[in-house]
Write a structure and sequence with these properties.
The protein has about 400 residues and is an alpha+beta fold. Among the domains are: about 45-55 and about 310-385, conserved putative lor/sdh protein from methanococcus maripaludis s2 fold; about 55-65 and about 220-305, Elongation Factor Tu (Ef-tu), domain 3 (Beta Barrel), CATH 2.40.30.170; about 100-180, Helix Hairpins (Orthogonal Bundle). It is built from 4 helices and 23 strands. Helix 2 packs antiparallel against helix 3. It is elongated. The chain starts with a helix and ends in a 13-residue tail after the last strand.
């Protein structure tokens, strides 16, 4: 009886195991880890190089200088009577600037005119005396010596008149012109150096009193220096028809001030010196710029761009697309199989936000311009043309 009971229990256990085994097998198959799919290639933006006609530009630092600069000094000595301008104002040629006390020069002019009148009276008497002497000399009433004396007296009187006329002219200049100092050029005058009431020393010696300084404003010159090697390169370019060192103003240059991002001011070269400085090995060049608003001021620093090569066709890519590997520069390009290739390049100048590539790429290349951190050489990517619309998002199923 006990054995029969144990056999029945064992049979139930075996039957239960047989029923559970398919369920356990199904559970085991569902819990097995599914094999993960490979990630898609990264998406990058590509663009073909832009083709342009380029002229290399050399940059130099220089200073503005005035075309004309005049120190206002008096020709006459005297006391400064009045000043007719405001410090720093713009003046026109002929504007009255300073007045020297004119009363002493009026007295000198009056005295010169009186002496001239006296000499003319003497000349009139000498001419009449000579006329009488001519008849007396023909009548043998006076001797030849007396007649010659009267002739000589007339000539002396004529010379005295001429001398006094010159003195009157000089006195008129002093009174009417030189006692009133006027602007010799158009420009901006600086501050007054002498106040009214002070004695002004005039003349032509080196100890004359400086009253003020005027500098022309428009146009204005920009002077800079460049090295001997650049000068030789410019001279050789001139033989090919690109005369950078032109003295005729045919070469256009561009300039920017210290607070400006672009070379927005255009001017022309008008002078290159005829000697190279022995101490620095540089030569002086000069360009002329229009300055109608007066912003450009003598002594101000700026940077100038000078054409440094003939025009040539070049490929340009965004400067952000250029990478650095130690001393070499490269760009990443995507080939026909969408594989990233590293191409070492030779860089040229920067034109806006584009960099000139002198060698290393072709016009048909697709250069990676966005997503450089996701691109790796010899790896596949998903290239998207720059400016193309993004792919449409898949629609959700209802």
């Amino acid at each position: 009886m006990g054995q029969t009971h144990h056999r029945a229990a064992a049979g139930l256990v075996l039957a239960s195991l047989a029923l559970l085994s398919p369920l356990l097998a199904g559970c085991g198959s569902n819990s097995a880890p599914a094999q993960s799919a490979a990630p898609p290639p990264p998406t990058v933006t590509v663009a073909k190089p832009e083709k342009r006609t380029i002229v290399d530009q050399d940059e130099y630092v220089g200073r503005f200088v005035a075309v004309d600069s005049v120190e206002v000094r008096s020709r006459l000595s005297g006391y400064l009577s009045s000043i007719h301008f405001t410090d720093g104002q713009m003046v026109k040629k002929g504007d009255l600037l300073f007045t020297i006390d004119r009363r002493p020069f009026q007295i000198i002019l009056d005295q010169a005119r009186a002496n001239l009148a006296q000499s003319r009276a003497t000349l009139s008497y000498a001419e009449a005396d000579l006329a009488r002497g001519e008849q007396l000399e023909r009548d043998k009433t006076i001797t030849k010596q007396v007649f010659d004396q009267r002739t000589q007296a007339k000539r002396v009187a004529e010379a005295a008149v001429q001398a006094n006329e010159a003195l009157v002219h000089q006195a008129e200049l002093d009174f009417q012109e030189y006692s009133q100092l006027r602007a010799p050029i158009d420009g901006r005058i600086g501050d007054r150096r002498v106040s009214p009431g002070n004695l002004v020393t005039g003349g032509t010696a080196g100890n004359t009193t400086l009253l003020g300084t005027i500098v022309s404003v428009d146009p204005i010159r920009f002077e800079f220096t460049f090295d001997e090697a650049s000068y030789l390169r410019y001279e050789r370019l001139a033989k090919g028809g690109r005369d950078v060192t032109s003295r005729e103003g045919s070469v256009v240059v561009a300039l920017k001030l210290l607070d400006e991002p672009d070379f927005s001011h255009q001017g022309r070269m008008d002078f290159v010196d005829n000697v190279i400085d022995r101490s620095s090995g540089t030569i002086r060049g000069r360009a002329v710029f229009s300055n109608p608003d007066g912003v450009l001021t003598p002594g101000m620093f700026a940077r100038v761009q000078v054409p440094g090569s003939p025009s040539y066709s070049a490929l340009l890519v965004p400067d952000t697309a250029v990478g650095t590997e130690q001393a070499r520069k490269y760009v990443l390009a995507v080939d026909s199989e969408n594989l990233v290739r590293m191409k070492y390049v030779t860089l040229g100048q920067l034109s806006g936000n584009l960099r000139v590539i002198k060698s290393g790429i072709e016009e048909k290349d697709r250069v990676v311009v966005n997503g450089l951190m996701r691109a790796r050489p010899n790896q596949k990517v998903n290239p998207q043309q720059e400016g193309a619309p993004p792919p449409a998002a898949p629609q959700a199923k209802n």
